[in-house]
Write a structure and sequence with these properties.
Elements lengths: L8 H17 L5 H20 L1
Helix pairs in contact: 1-2
């Protein structure tokens, strides 16, 4: 049985914030990568909500 992973709204906000602020320090991190990562995390959290 798969261990349950709880993702709160606060966790998602923090992840998005980390991506945005982290991007300021890392020139190689493109906007497309940031958007793709945010979307991926959002989808994963929705999947966890359904399971």
């Amino acid at each position: 049985m798969k261990p349950e992973i709880i993702v709160t709204k606060e966790d998602l906000y923090q992840a998005v914030e980390n991506l945005i602020y982290g991007q300021l320090d890392e020139d190689t991190f493109s906007d497309d990568e940031a958007i793709a990562t945010i979307i991926k995390q959002h989808i994963e959290s929705k999947i966890e909500d359904i399971i």
